[in-house]
Amino acid sequence: MLVLEKLSYRHPQALAETPPWRFSLRAEAATVTSISGVSGGGKSTLMELIAGLLQPTSGALSWNDQDLLPLSAGTRPISLLFQQHNLFEHLSAVDNVLLGHKGKVDNAARQAAEQALADMGLAAHVQARADRLSGGQQQRVALARTLLRRSKVVLLDEPFSALDDDTRRNAWPLVRALADDHGCCVLMVTHDQRDCDAVADRQLLLSEGQLAVRA
Predict the structure, then answer these.
(1) Which of 61, 155, 176, 185 keeps 20 to 30 A from 46, CA to CA?
(2) Dihedral angle, C-alpha 102, 104, 108, 110, nearest 10 °
(3) What is this structure's pTM?
(4) In sequence order, what are the beta bridge partners of 63?
(5) How do residues 169-209 score in pLDDT, each as one tens digit?
(6) Own/partner long-range contacts of 139-142 (Cβ < 8 Å, ≥24 apart)
């Protein structure tokens, strides 16, 4: 279980009298939790705190009773898919996906990466350089890499925002499979209610650092 207990953060530009955001959350393995809310409400900040890209001022963060706060971002059992700027532009689509592979990059790993791209409708673009792909295609490559990595905790920040409707619908079951088939704990930030309804076991609303079950 992923547990946040009053994980606090104050934005550097916040006024002194503004209270810090305090995030509390419990999310089980093999579940998908969606998080929605207004722009500037703290959704991306929450993801970056969990991933270790931002340091909280106080509070606790653990995964299966392991304290994650002393761990650097690279050593946490967590993958974070950003909303943008996810790829190395000089690498091919398949080589970008392989960056998510754990262990030796052999033929089996390359085949798995190519299959992940095919699942995202990119079989014809396996060898294409990332900078030759459209924004939607780049987002699909990044999502394929995250799916291949299958970390214990998967953080998705607007994973479908650059996708057309057909691709979005095809991607929903792939995210569900992270929880159902691989036991991952998935937190998904999205502004689109369709994503919440299609993928999430539980829907949360975030406003000014406070999480609540969506009515």
Answers:
(1) 176
(2) 80
(3) 0.90
(4) 2, 66
(5) 988 998 999 999 999 999 999 999 999 999 999 999 998 77
(6) 139/84, 139/86, 139/163, 140/167, 140/171, 141/86, 141/87, 141/93, 141/96, 141/97, 141/117, 142/81, 142/82, 142/86, 142/87, 142/96
